[in-house]
């Protein structure tokens, strides 16, 4: 991702290496407490087994390799999903390649499916999957237009909610990260605002976008918080997690934050409450719940799921292992304390200098103790010409992959 939005269209590819670096930071833990916010029993949880979810990975490869259209998805990152009332699944992506793909061999004789280096790149996209699990349609792109020159929107977590409190009509609410082009170290964009978009049902037409938390008044960009990397429903609340960009300012790690909103109220800015370090408050400055901002922390692209009263957080591991290894933490409350890391795993990666990032749980595809988790893959030099060339000559380097996880009691 380059220094400005236009250059980024030529050289960059989505959340990419930002998330590979930022997600590499993880958290030290505090002692347990008796906080059971959200209700239900809470027990220590850890990963007990994992396996590649090849059916989903192969379905995105099939759809991306289909050359019958030139205006649909061929690769993207920032993978999120939401189940629609009619059974369809809506997949949301950040920076996305469109256009034609070509079968092997590629121009340098390798046995990879490839795309032309001039293939269109858009800031966001949405792909519809049938109830049976077949990808069928890319919505007209970009789904969420740029708010201003040199700014763009990346979709993150989404929910189906009543159009208004008590209404029987439903809509899709999509949380958005707004970023503004900036100079180094903000080569991936300066955090600007958290927004919520409303999509109509069943036609998925954009109706409007509401600003939830404008961060432009925060002078230090590394302290600006964007919410929506993951959201968890518990009791009467939806808990929305977010992170800052401390990593971009050469700090060792970013920090994690949490807000909450009454279920069904994501599009109401006045309904949002932020954890200020000791309590929930409507107009509070958010305070971190994970990480100390110096030696420990968590990246902006992590995922949280609630299982039997326990909150489980998935993120990339610390240090160099964070380019290849997913680890987890658990807590009895969204505000922590978080315990771990527990058992980690290293999902499969294609050959080459590539990194995994943005682990996201998809509850819509999970059942029982089985969790479906996606992770994105990108070339390590995604912002340079060699990185872009590698993504073009091997389209599989910029598509999500999936694994199935099983959790059990931690010792």
Give the C-level CATH assignment.
Mainly Beta
Can you tell me the residue ranges where pLDDT is under 50 for at least 5 consecutive residues?
1-35
Question: How would a crystallographer describe the biggest sheet?
Answer: 5 strands, antiparallel
Please tell me how large the radius of gyration is. Answer: 20 Å
The residue fraction in helices comes out at under 10%
Label the overall shape. Answer: globular
Structure description:
The chain is mostly beta strands and 411 residues long. It has a single domain, classed as Tachylectin-2, Chain A (5 Propeller), CATH 2.115.10.20. It contains four helices and 25 strands. The chain has helices at 5-11, 16-22, 54-65, 385-393, and strands at 45-52, 75-76, 80-83, 89-93, 96-97, 101-102, 114-115, 121-122, 125-129, 135-138, 151-162, 170-180, 190-199, 206-214, 226-234, 237-243, 256-262, 273-275, 280-281, 303-307, 310-316, 326-331, 354-361, 370-379, 401-409. The strands form seven sheets. The protein has a five-stranded antiparallel β-sheet, with no helix packed on it. The protein has a four-stranded antiparallel β-sheet with strand order 1-25-24-23. It has a four-stranded antiparallel β-sheet with strand order 3-4-9-10, covered by helices on one side. The longest helix has 12 residues, at 54-65.
